[in-house]
Amino acid sequence: MDQIVFLTEILFPALIGGTVITLELIAVTAPIGLLLGIAIAVGRTYGSWTIVEICKGYVIFFKGCPLLLLLFILYFGFPTIGITFTAFTAAVIGFICCNSAYNSEYIRGAMLSVQQGQLIAAKALGMTKRQAIINIVLPQALRRAIPGISNEFIYLIKYSSLAYVITVIELTGSAKQVATKYFMYTETFIIVALFYLAIVTVATIGINAIEKRVAIPGFVQK
Amino acid sequence: MKGSPGKGAGLFHRVESLDLIRVSKWFLKTNAVRDLSFSVSGGELIALIGGSGSGKTTTLRMINRLIEPDAGQILINGVPISTLDPIYLRRSIGYVIQQIGLFPHMSVQENISIPLKLGGYTRVDIQNRIDELLELVSLSPVQYRDRRPAELSGGQQQRVGLARALAADPPLLLMDEPFGALDPLLRRQLQEEFIRIKRELRKTILFVTHDIDEALLLGDRIAVLQEGTLYFLGNPQDLLITAQQDPYLSVLTGGDRLCTMRSVPVSMLAVPAGDVIYCTDLSNSIRIRDAVRNKEVRGAVLSLPDEKLRILLLDQEGNGNGISESPVIRFAPGTTVLEALSRFSRSSARAAVLTESDAVQVILLEDLIGLLSGGGSA
């Protein structure tokens, strides 16, 4: 079969469809994963004893559980106890759990690096603890956590390919289908790799732009 | 301000009195503050001084309830602060910390506006107040409003910190080594500006410092803390006088280094023949005492026992003219100090009955001993 025809009429349309699903997975997971990560980091640093322990448990469990296994449990295991997810939902839940656990650790580290004096100053001005965390600690901590969060975001782009194992036809899944059907493994997978590379490159550029934009003038982060 | 609750100004608009009654605080097994009692009256500046770990900062932070005492009570205007909402209490108390107090992610005006937003000021009021405050601390609003703290020098940051603490016009100010991290020149400049601001605003202030010169310069009274207890409380003059007999205070005040304070018989105080002496009343001047300390002028400071009157004797050139608000009076060659002092007797009942057998307290710079008759054998 003509290589050009294979590429333009079979592989690319299939991969574009897969890319859309991959981007959807990321678009749903990343914001929720970040917000949940912030919540867990705050809970673990400033929460009551119970909240601290719950957040600790969450992080330990999802950092320790292989993501693939987590997806299996969600997609194949949960139906046996009467909870059924679509493949897409199961993948998103799994990704969010993993993504938020790691994000929370990056954010927690950044929060601990915000000087103690900042919180004291905020309290001394008459802020409530909540006001101090929202207005003083988080704006500084999140800026410092950007390198970590962006790292995790890029991992997410790549580990979103695991969704294919639980039948989500995302980028890798669509490629696998085409490759198997037309027996064009090498070409297909190299091109898929280039697709991922493109997505990651765009993401990296975007993150750098965000980092630059929110940078504090004159403030060198030590 | 995101994340309410709570807009609203402070709990009190004036401080008539601040009382610490047998306050104690332990950290683990360390007794940081022991049985500390003292009272501050409205409009007074108390300088808290002492070595590291003497409980200065802990004392300050118990007053705005950043730290809760383990025993004892703190009263403001007679009301125990433990019965007040700490959030609202803190909005009535300005707090200035060394270095780290400003929020790096906020511009100067955002930093200053925090107490105003918490106090529920309107937008227009906030904008006006920010400009007013920046001018008060000698920063041009147009130039500095939108800068971030990292774009300011240390001295400018400290000014912004002061402006922020003053923003909501709190009647009580707590200052924890606010000028500690600055170089000596800048520190002096800010101290002098602070004296001006203090005069203008008339607030009740507790000022922690480890710099005795700063305490002597700014304090209406000085509280010396040692290992969490009150070692001494009194006005600067009393501190210097007491330091003569007390080894700890002597070391603290650097009595051996900067100046000596001695009890000198009046009869010994005479100006060598041929010299002219200039005298001025120091009772209202902080700068002049300081000028002598820094050897900007040559002179000796005399303080009469039990009197507020302090008198500076200047050298023959009369240097230092103009640094006191009181007129400098010129005395003819050969005038004895007793004669010079008696010139002030109209304003001082004590000086009026001063006789040759009396002694006066003299703060004397080493190189000015020659001003005394007897070549400094005093």
Q: What's the N-to-C terminus distance of chain B?
A: 64 Å
Major β-sheet of chain B, in short?
Answer: 6 strands, mixed
Number of domains of chain A: 1
- N-to-C series of helices and strands of chain B: EEEHEEHEHHHHEHEHEEHHEEHEEEHHE
Described by strand count, sense and barrel closure, the largest sheet of chain A is: none
Quantity of strands of chain A, as a count? 0
Text of the CATH class of the largest domain in chain B: Alpha Beta
Radius of gyration of chain B: 23 Å
Shape of chain A from CA axes?
A: flat
Classify the helix fraction of chain A into a percent range.
over 70%
Structural features, described:
The complex is a heterodimer of chains A (222) and B (378). With 222 residues, chain A is mainly α. Chain A has one domain (3-213): MetI-like (MetI-like fold, Orthogonal Bundle), CATH 1.10.3720. Helices cover 81% and strands 0% of the residues of chain A. Chain A contains eight helices and no strands. In chain A, helix 1 packs antiparallel against helix 2 and helix 2 (49-64) crosses helix 4 (87-113). Chain A is flat. The mean pLDDT of chain A is 92. Chain B has helices at residues 56-63, 86-91, 108-118, 123-136, 141-144, 154-166, 184-201, 212-218, 236-243, 247-252, 287-293, 337-342, 349-352, and strands at residues 17-27, 30-41, 45-49, 71-76, 79-80, 93-97, 172-176, 204-209, 221-226, 229-234, 260-265, 277-281, 299-303, 310-314, 329-331, 359-364. Chain B is globular. With 378 residues, chain B is of the alpha+beta class. In chain B, helix 7 links the parallel strand 7 (172-176) and strand 8. Helices cover 30% and strands 25% of the residues of chain B. Chain B folds into two domains: 17-257, 3-Layer(aba) Sandwich (Rossmann fold), CATH 3.40.50; 266-372, Roll (CBS-domain), CATH 3.10.580.10. In chain B, the strands form three sheets. Chain B has a six-stranded mixed beta sheet, sandwiched between helices. In chain B, strands 11-16-13-14-12-15 form a six-stranded antiparallel beta sheet, covered by helices on one side. The chains are: A mainly alpha (222), B alpha+beta (378).
